[in-house]
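Form 7-S
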Amino acid sequence: MSTFTPRPWRVATAVVAVCGLVVVAVPEAAAAPAARSNYHIVNLTPAGITSSSVADINNRGQIAGRIEPELGVLRATTWVRGMSQQLSDVTSQASMINDRGQVLGYTEDAAGLRLVRWWRGNEAVVDERGAPTDQLVALDERGRVLLTSSDFGSGAFSASIWRDGQTVEVIGLPAPIPDTGPFAWAFPQLRDMNERGQIIGDGPAPFLGGGGSAFVWKDGVTAILPSLDGRPGTSVSALNARGQIAGNSSALDGTASHPVIWHNGRVRDLGTLPGAAFTTTQHTQQALSDNGHVIGFASSADFMSHRAWIWHRGHMTDLGDLGGTFTDPIAVNDRGRVVGSALTADGELHAFVWERGRITDLGDLGGGESHAFGINDRGDIIGESRTTDHQVHAVLWTRRRLP
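Output:
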């Protein structure tokens, strides 16, 4: 399951990608034809609520996120068939939900910050150390939670797996290394976990210079993932139930990197989009489906073009656009449907879905802006939209009729 990442709400005048930040420029462009949407848009924000946000959706259509009853007041919330249920009466956020309906997130009150799980009306504390560097990484379908803790002062790092009140330390991971960057230490970054007990991550790398080595861990043993050119310079994004891993590797042709997929210790180059200067896998846990679909984006050398692609069974396909020069994929489901955000010919950012070779504008709540963050295997899509009164509301796009 994916972890929610806030998306930018305003669009500038050029596409620039530096250190993970994307600024989008809107040059004049001819409109490209997009399919007519047959999705219903459902405003998930309850009446009287200022704003809301969604983070994750499971294959039963249950959604995790938060509402904002008043400015600055956050409450963890789930939605089922469009109806909301508040999970906590204190400051809180729900970040992940699995197909069993187990929800992960955090609460914060006078006693501090706690990482928690909500399930069947009960709240269980996963971690109560309260350090801001404690992080929920993944929740699997068996209810296991992967979390990490880092201490930028001492360089201490730990990872553990929690399930039903029992915590087991993950041993054998790469150790932090001293660094000359702003935090004095470089830590391994865990990215995902599957039901096989595999954990993927990126090894510690210096803040300036030098690439890290991505790895896969299982049963106390860490295996370094091979690169295309034999040098350090690999990173991972997502792991599926079959043990396939999507990521990026330094390339033999001297370009910055190529998108790749690893399976059973072997690396496969996914290639590049024609005419693109940079082609990379998207950095989300939903960038890889259980059926081996991989999504990513490609940019021109001047960063004036940002194109989305999907790879499957040896073929990379350009997803097209909504009339603008920026298309950003966020998630793909097991049927190969892709969602994300794209610029229209009018310079607005709209949520899209791509399926069966066609890209569709999902529309908005009247405010001229929307973003899609996730999709389940039934095709239900979650995201956010700006309303006519400039509020940001959580939304669901679905072909199903809700009560």
